[in-house]
Structure formats: C-alpha cells, structure tokens
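Quick one, probably user error.
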C-alpha cells in the first residue's frame, strides 16, 4: 500500500482531527468511527493508521471488521476495501427513502461507455472520449457521472483550447467494489456486456 497516499495527492483532509489529549480519552474503535463519520469523502486507510495507537494493518482491519459487523443491520453501513472506508446508507431501507431523496436512475449506455473510457484512459478529455466511442458525447452523460461523484474534473490539458480533463473518484472505487483502479475488468468483458463493441485497444 502506498505510504501517505493523501499527502502524495496533495489533498486536504476535511476532517476535524482530535488533538492528542482528547484522543487519549477515546479508544481506537471510536476514533475510527468518528473520523469516517465526520468526513464527506471516503477516508484512506493509510490516514487511519496514523490516528490509532498501533500502526499495524492487521490491527486496523480487526477494528474495521468490528465496525462493519456493528453497523451491518443498521440504517447506515460501514464499508471498506484495501484502500478506503466510508459510511453508506443501507440498501435495506431504500424504499423508505424514496420520498426523501431523488432515486438514482439507471445509467444510459452512453453514460456507461463514457464512464468506462474515463476509467481505462484517465485522465481524458471529452473529445478523446468521443474519438474512442466514435460518436459525439452529450454533456448530459458527463453531468450524470459528475452528479453521482464517480468522476471529477482534474484540471485542463496543456493543448490549444485547454479542454477539461476527467478522472474517476474514490467513491467510484467503493461503489463498484474495486480496491484499486487496476482491478477493473478487461475490455473483452465490457464488450460481452455490449459496451465499446467498436473500440479496439491500441495498447
């Protein structure tokens, strides 16, 4: 696992970290619970290792297993993979939330292909996506993916016109049960699902 992942990405934590004196009053399980609960984004496991009493991955996994079991049958679930952890609304109460939240519609084929291209070729621009798909991409597909927080704008490409560049997010990995972007299925599997059937990988 890459050391100090958040620092390498230059990301600022949006979590209020307990000071050392206050942290001594809580056990490690409660510290993990509080940090992940307070964050709007998935928390990297390397970050949690710096906040508990023992910087030991096996020990951390034991604590996260306890949290996952504790929240298993509750309104929110604690989920984690090899890199990130997060609290998510339990799928068991989806019906009860229909009136409270707008239900996510199934992705269109265009949006699925756009997401796949960004995942495999990130960072990439809209024109590059259109070139791979062989058709013009509506802004709507990108808006849907941005709205689901599966992709994000990572900057502008250093070419004439300075087009926006897109990449996948940490939430994308968690929602699709991927520990790492390298865990993506190969392109043949996508073609069997009817996606990118006209695309030939040049790599």
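Nope, works fine. Designed sequence:
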């Amino acid at each position: 696992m890459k050391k100090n992942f958040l620092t390498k990405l230059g990301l600022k934590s949006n979590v209020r970290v307990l000071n050392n004196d206050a942290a001594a009053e809580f056990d490690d399980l409660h510290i993990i619970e509080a940090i992940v609960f307070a964050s709007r984004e998935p928390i990297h496991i390397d970050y949690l290792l710096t906040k508990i009493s023992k910087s030991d991955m096996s020990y951390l996994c034991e604590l996260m297993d306890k949290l996952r079991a504790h929240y298993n049958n509750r309104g929110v679930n604690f989920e984690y993979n090899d890199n990130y952890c997060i609290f998510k609304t339990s799928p068991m109460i989806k019906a009860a939330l229909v009136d409270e939240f707008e239900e996510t519609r199934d992705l269109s084929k265009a949006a699925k292909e756009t997401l796949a291209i960004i995942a495999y070729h990130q960072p990439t621009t809209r024109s590059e996506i259109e070139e791979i798909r062989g058709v013009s991409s509506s802004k709507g597909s990108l808006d849907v993916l941005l709205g689901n927080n599966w992709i994000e704008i990572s900057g502008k490409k250093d070419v004439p016109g300075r087009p926006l560049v897109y990449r996948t997010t940490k939430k994308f990995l968690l929602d699709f049960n991927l520990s790492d972007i390298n865990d993506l299925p190969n392109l043949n599997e996508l073609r069997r699902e009817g996606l990118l059937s006209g695309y030939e990988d040049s790599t």
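The radius of gyration is 19 Å.
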